[in-house]
Amino acid sequence: MALVLILQLLTLWPLCHADLTSTGSQESQGPSSPVFSVPPALYPKPWLGAQPAAIVTPGVNVTLRCQAPQPAWRFALFKSGEITPVLYRDVSMELAEFFLEEVTPAQGGCYHCCYRNPGWNLGVWSHPSDTLELLVTDQLPPPSLVALPGPVVAPDANVSLRCAGRLRGMSFALYRVGVAAPLQYRDSAEPWADFPLRGASAPGTYSCYYHTPSSPYVLSLRSEPLLISADGSGSLDYMQGNLVRLGLAGLVLISLGTLVVFDWRSQSCAQAVSGPEPQRTGHRCLAV
C-alpha cells in the first residue's frame, strides 16, 4: 500500500502543481517513459468551477466541477498546501464532480484539478486547471471608499465614488448617511465599482459594502465613512457677485438721493426769488 501511494505521488504531484519540469527534460525521455510535463496543445488543461458559488457560508454543500476539454477516465482534485490529491473520480466522460458536504472554514483554500485520458501513456496527466479559490466565511472584509478626482467638488462638476473590495464579480451598494435605502447598485466584474454623482447634490457622508451576486449571499462589512464637501471657490464667487450687485444698488440710491436734493434746493430758490418779500435763508441763490 505504501508503494502504491509513493507511485501516485511521483506521477501526480509534479503534474498538478506549478513547478512542472521543463520541456527539455521531456524530450530526453523515451516515448514509453512517464511524462510529468506535457505540451498544452496536446494535453490541454481542464476548467474548475464551484456550485452554488466559490464564496459560501459555513455549512453549505459545495460541488467542485472539473470539466475536461476531451474525454477522460480519471480526475484528481488537489488543494494548495497538500501533497496528495483531495479526491479522485473515475468517470468515462468530460466532467467530474467533487462533493464537499457542509463545508467549514478549514476547507476553504485554493484548488485545482487534472485529468487522464485512457489513450495516453502511463503516468501522463493533463496540465492543472487554473486555481479556484474557495472562501468559506460568515462575512467578507470591508471595502475601501474613495472619491475621484477628490472629496471636494465644485457645484458644476461631477465626482465618482469608487468602492473597492478584494474579490471580483461582486455586487456593490452605495449609501448616504441619513438615507435608509441605498443610493445606487452596481454589479462589477472587477473588484471595484464606480458610483457617479453630480457636484451640486454630492456633498454629504457616504459608505458602501459588497456581497456575492447570488444565493447564498455573503455580505461584507461597511466601509469607513467618506465625507464629500463643496468647493469653497464657488461660494466665494457667489459672495463676490452679491457684493458687486449691492455696491451698484448703493450707487444708484446715492445718485437718486443727490437728484432729489438738487431738485428740492432749486424749488426753494425759485420760491424765494418770486415772493413779495424775500427772506434770508441759509441758502445762496443765483441772481435772476
How would you explain this protein's 3D organization?
It comes from Neomonachus schauinslandi (Hawaiian monk seal). There is one protein chain. The chain is built from three helices and 16 strands. The protein has 288 residues and is α+β, with helices and mostly antiparallel strands. Among the domains are: 43-139, Immunoglobulin-like (Sandwich), CATH 2.60.40; 144-232, Immunoglobulins (Immunoglobulin-like, Sandwich). The chain has a five-stranded mixed sheet, with no helix packed on it. It has a five-stranded mixed sheet with strand order 10-16-15-12-13, with no helix packed on it. Strands 1-3-6 form a three-stranded antiparallel sheet, with no helix packed on it. The model is unreliable at 1-37, 233-238 and 280-288 (pLDDT under 50).
